[in-house]
Design goal:
Mean pLDDT: 96
Structural class: alpha/beta
Number of domains: 1
Radius of gyration: 18 Å
Largest sheet: 8 strands, parallel
Low-confidence stretches: none
Shape: globular
CATH superfamily: Metal-dependent hydrolases
């Protein structure tokens, strides 16, 4: 069985310590997508992070492997190594150039969403004015599909996410998003969004963040409750895990350079309170997820789907697109 964590965050710093990755592996995770930048990070910082992460992975081939396909993940699991790839949270690092998508793919980025909470020239954030997917955004969706990258709608405005899912020729995911019906927070996704995602063949991966789970000390049962809601609404084939654990490391300042305003990206009007930072499920929660999902009534086969097989299915389809295009040519 492959355990797949669709999104995690190390410090946005080239010298980030990979100890948290080892903790996830020790807890049974076989693959994790590491964030390498968001809309608030300039391209210079994103590229520095990618270079640093790639160097760490290359320096420890006995522990890590940067993957480009599902077969790589299966082989890494057999070898006892952690399979890794990268994700981008927002389109601003694309510099309004669809051609940048393929470049990031070559560097290890295997999933991307287009807006981090706020609007940009490509898409809408979930905490901003609804406009819809822009003309440039439609070209970006096509570029993501052509590059064989997972199209993600986390942090995206509701209307815009529906338009992205309608425009995509490939399954779309939410790598870390929870049902709005269970917790009323602007980052959570409506039943309509969950149903639209499932209609693409995609997966909604549940976040382990306290704000979105509705628990001050989130644990496996909190995650399982949200998974069970998705499974009941659209079927177990469309539920997954993306715990979104953000690992802080003393001594590494990853604050974006320039005039960075946290209140802009996490507005108080949307319910964010700087005096009450979020809490996260620990990496060890992975050991508890199977029993927690079983308590919701799922059988072993369904649990395997949630913990990895669903995302493997989608990645197998999406990541093989460039290879299929080459064969067709």
């Amino acid at each position: 069985m492959i355990n797949w964590d669709a999104h995690a965050c190390l410090p946005q710093h080239p010298q980030a310590d990979f100890t948290p990755v080892d903790q996830l592996r020790a807890a049974g995770v076989n693959y994790v997508s590491l964030n390498v930048g968001a809309d608030m990070n300039p391209v210079s910082q994103v590229m520095s992070v990618i270079a640093g992460y790639r160097a760490t992975i290359a320096a420890h081939p006995e522990r890590y492997v940067l993957v480009s396909n599902v077969d790589d993940i299966i082989q890494a699991a057999a070898d006892g190594r952690m399979a890794l790839s990268f994700d981008l949270e927002g389109a601003m690092p694309l510099l309004e150039q669809p051609e940048m998508v393929a470049l990031y793919a070559q560097l290890g980025v295997r999933q991307i969403h287009f807006a981090y909470n706020r609007n940009n020239s490509v898409a809408d954030g979930c905490h901003d004015v609804a406009r819809g997917l822009t003309g440039l955004g439609h070209r970006m969706v096509a570029a993501v599909n052509d590059a064989g990258i997972l199209m993600d709608c986390s942090h995206t405005g509701r209307r815009c996410s529906l338009e992205i899912m309608a425009a995509s020729s490939q399954p779309v995911i939410f790598s870390h998003a929870n049902p709005l019906a269970l917790v009323q927070h602007g980052r959570n996704v409506s039943d309509e969004q969950i149903q639209a995602c499932a209609a693409t063949g995609g997966v909604v991966c549940v976040s382990g963040l306290s704000w979105f789970l509705g628990s001050e000390r989130p644990g496996a049962d909190d995650v399982a409750r949200h998974v069970a809601y998705i499974a009941e609404l659209v079927g177990v084939a469309h539920a997954g895990i993306g715990l979104d654990i953000c690992f802080q490391q003393p001594g590494l300042d990853d604050t974006p350079p320039g005039a960075f305003d946290p209140g802009h990206w996490w507005p108080a009007s949307a319910g964010y309170d700087a005096s009450r930072p979020p809490t996260f499920t620990p990496p060890s929660v992975w050991r508890e997820l199977a029993p927690a999902l079983r308590r919701t009534g799922m059988n072993n086969a369904e649990i395997e789907q949630v913990l990895g097989r669903n995302m493997m299915r989608v990645a197998q389809q999406v990541w093989s697109v460039p290879e299929q295009l080459l064969k067709a040519a």
